[in-house]
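Progress report, Aim 2. The chain analyzed during this reporting quarter is listed below.
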Amino acid sequence: MGLVVALSAPHTTVTPAHASLLESIRRVIVKTNDALPVRIRLGPAGVVTQAQRDSVRRARLAKLPKPPPTELQAGMTNSTFTRRTLELRWWISDSASREVRVYRRDLKGSWRYVGRSRADVRGQLSWRDSTVVRGQPVEYALELRSARGVRFVPLPAVDIPGDRMLRLVARTNSIGEATLLLELPTSYPATLELFDVSGRHLGSIDASGLRAGPHSVLVPRALLPAAGVYFVRLQQAGAVTDAKLIVPR
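Predicted structure tokens for the chain:
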């Protein structure tokens, strides 16, 4: 309830000085009538103007609890993979700034800043990544800003389709150095083994730490004792493929 102040003058004769003072007080009250949450009665009891009712209403609204601030949010609208390019569509909440910082999780699991994107008036933004690897999921996160602060929002991982096939090509140069060009559809541990033409096992090359995607592996010279024909076997998750390796004289 607002404070009620009632002013009344006794039905007696006042001096001109007193009358001037009362008129000054009345003018001050009229000027502050709309600015304060106080109902001031200058006439008969119970007469309240619309401006006075609005003033009391504003005072009551000021005492109501304020709603909590809107949380900054983001999500994915669509993802499309064409050849080696991943195209993404994201959305952000209306309370976030249109300028958005984009992060991507690297092979060590850490978030790395990869660039900026700007959302349109509907809060939609797009992102294109041509560095993704087939068969390897990729994760992104958005850094959203508003007048209330900053929020880091990780997004669900995006699965990149793979060929579901192992690929292995063996090459040698003129000085006898051998290189294996291989492609892994998944990040499961893989094995590389070397055999001679009689099928004798000559040794293994560590490939357990290779992730999905293309790789180039140099064959140690110790596994190639002499010129001739060798065979390399690549295995991963039950799939096997072989390649012939010819070491020139």
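The mean pLDDT is 81. DSSP finds two helices and 16 strands in the chain. These observations will guide the mutagenesis work planned for the next reporting period.
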